[in-house]
Amino acid sequence: MKNILTFQNVNYFYQTKDDEIFALNNVSFDIEEKSFVSLVGPSGCGKTTILSLTAGLLTPSSGKILLDGEESIDTKKIGYMFQKDFLFEWRSVWKNISLGLEIQKPKNLDEKLAFAEELLKKYDLFAFKDQKPRSLSGGMRQRVALIRTLALEPKLLLLDEPFSALDYQTRLTLCDDVHSIIKSEEKTAILVTHDISEALSMSDKILVLSNRPATVKDTIFPNLAGKTPLKRRENEEFGKLFDNIWRQLIYDKTEEKN
User: Fold this and answer.
1) Which domains does the chain carry?
2) What whole-number distance in Å separates Cα of residue 256 and Cα of residue 258?
3) Which residues contact residue 227 at a Cβ distance below 8 angstroms, ignoring those fewer than 6 apart?
4) What is the pLDDT of residues 175-194, one digit of tens each?
5) Checking DSSP bridges between strand 20-32 and strand 3-15, what pairing results, if any?
6) What angle do CA 46, 50, 55 make, to 5 degrees?
7) What DSSP character marks residue 67?
8) Fewest CB atoms within 10 Å of the CB: 2, 10, 154, 248?
9) For residue 118, what is the enclosing H or E element?
């Protein structure tokens, strides 16, 4: 399978008022096309920094980042989904979904709008297209946000804790929905999460990061049986994998205190 994203010995420093912070230390990994990969690690270790570097919002201090084989980041190939849905309350669901296309104004606008409409129908949101976001549940709002991103047809989706503001039951349901949509549309996704169970249930591969300056300390391939993330949580290997990752994160916290 072709690699869509490669980090090669990436280091990143940033400047504060009082100091220079070493955020990433020699980070290297590959992301294969159509795979779902999660980043887990201690709070503040640099997970979101990796997403920002991938999206071209930051430039590495040293090392290389290759997106689709190219060192220059083509931002049109990147879709970003945040913790908040950032839907505009004064615009309808349809107007929110088509916003990115309005801004980009591609030559084949009609074709892309038709594709966006098909996504609404395919994922059971077409009946709500003329409603305002305030009338939707939290889970539905995030599905709208995902479809808004998919309408731009990115090659790589960056998911920055998109479920963390939701209640537990909604999170479980939405994990299934989002995973199903991403796999159905054959997209590549990178998820940043603090939830180990979420990472295990959704991912083909998990990168475990160390404390800052972050490095990749382990790569885990869950390979859990089950068609959905919810079903994978029932797998007998789930607890063992959870414990493995948890111990690595706790060990890092202990090191940091010492």
Assistant:
1) 3-257 (3.40.50.300)
2) 5
3) none
4) 999 999 999 999 999 999 99
5) antiparallel
6) 145
7) E
8) 2
9) helix 109-122
